[in-house]
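Entry 14. Structure prediction run on the chain below.
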Amino acid sequence: MLATAIVEKNAYDVALENFDLAANALDLEDNIRTMIKYPERILSVSVPVRMDSGKVVRFEGYRVQHSTLRGPAKGGIRYHPNVTVDEVKALATWMTWKCAVVNIPFGGGKGGVTCNPKALSLGELERLTRRYASSILPLIGPEKDIPAPDVYTTPQIMAWIMDTYSMNKGYPVHGVVTGKPISLGGSLGRNEATGRGVFYTTVSSCRHLGISVEGARVVVQGFGNAGSIAAQLFHAAGTKVLAVNDTRGCICNLKGLDIPAVIAFKNRTGSVVGFPGADSIKQEELLALECEILVPAALENAITVENAHTIHARIVSEAANGPVTPEADRILDQNGVFLIPDILCNAGGVTVSYFEWVQDENHLFWDEQDVNNRLEKVMTRAFQDVLKIHLDRKVNMRLAANMLGVSRVADASRVRGLYP
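Output returned:
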């Protein structure tokens, strides 16, 4: 009965629990807790869409602004059948601390539509996007709230949102979203940014722990944008990527997968399943493989109290948001696993989103190497900031990252004060 209750704890409960742990460790005063713990705005919208058949179907959509204390709200929009308001609130909360950890002048926001985008035609997807964008129009803007891609949303979807907003304004507003196509003010390096940030923070962790990156064994759970880019960078650095998976199944080769070939195979067939020279394994076997680096890059709650004891990695790099539950956290910590928390590990995406917004607002664009160099500098500095708290305060890396993020937002709250 107890195990069931633990598994059913939703993402927002986890987000609040992590905040309380950080606030307690910081001895945060009650007034500041009251001001920064909960979302500032929660918008729920009805999204009726005319389908290709002529039938009108209603979808549920959300946009949550957790904090605008340090700058405009920033966060992705996801299209997924399991989107709930609590999930969006949790993700917006994590975005607040994430932006603060890498010290960029944004607060946290998030959006979502409860739908199955894979079941929609391109026309239906466009009409859904434009209707949803019209519904959240009062909340978004380059100085207020800046959406970006997330699960099952793309640069094309961002282009439709940018166009919908611009048509209502009467002039092009490139900075209203990030993750756009390059032709509409997108940034070079944005598509690879999340995976690249995972790679930079993991390399920093290897240096700290005395692990050689070359020859290290890596397992990647989730082979979407973040997971595949991270795997590609690890492969190029000389690691052995033992196993990867997607929604259709898992593949494994203990001698190491040829990641560029796996990516080409997935682009051609739609899945990694069936890749020549690899064995098919179950997801629980993938997570339990002995390796130096495990990268959970799928959805939240991948590692729970039920499977945490099976993890045999030295480093867990959270490329996804919330892939490890608090109970699993404690087990990994007791077993000596070095965890790079999501609000640090996958912050490369929002960091380059910030770079894109800066470029849009200044109408001046950088080359890709400049973007990557700036990203490496931000991610390496943020890792060192979190590591210092980890070592000085003798707390685990998640608590250290949350303490850093929460303390920066708390500082902003103190100096801004309470209006009126």
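DSSP finds 15 helices and twelve strands in the chain.
Filed with the rest of this week's runs.
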